[in-house]
Structure prediction request, 222 residues.
Amino acid sequence: MKKCLIVTSFIDQMDQLIDDMDFFDKASFDCTIAADYGRVNCEKLGIRPDILIGDYDSSDRPPADQGAIVLPTHKDMTDTEAALDLAAEKGCRDITLLGGLGGRFDHTMGNLGMLAKFTDLTDHIELVDGENRVFMARPTGNQPDTDPPILVEKGRYTYLGMAAWTPTVTGLTSRGVAYPVTDFTLSSDTTRGACNEILPGQEARITFRTGKLMIIQSNDAR
Prediction:
């Protein structure tokens, strides 16, 4: 399974992410793509990108000898989506995006939409910045006692949130957390899934029947 790291133009908690880069095994990625200003963020993070892509409306165009893919400024997608499409074309099935959360809310919502889109096209995709890790899950099945659960380790993140991307997520069962639920229907118009916590020495075990579930890990209680 090919792994890809995409560095986006906006990383809200850059200083924190720089401090935490030791938890990334940068050598484990088969391909690193810098989207537009992500080229500058790569320099800050000590990452050497394999591919540069963007319209470069938020940074200087790279020198010609760096072989950047230059996109038109007026286009129907963001540079981040173009980078994701490129990763998918290259057969990458495990994708990590650095950044893409916070800042302009339309971009954040668009990037969450990309999670929904590429969750169906990849084995795993997540957004990571210095404060959050966000990924989306597909249904695990109809038998919560026997279906393999989604396992979420506590790691460096204290808090766990769940949100329905679809109107409802049905049959939601969670274990190993401070506020477990059993066969619960989580709707998209509630904060019920926010600010949970993985219990010490355990991992969250999550199953559900239908819908798309967004899982958010955070190291800030706000």
User: Anything to note?
Assistant: The mean pLDDT is 90.
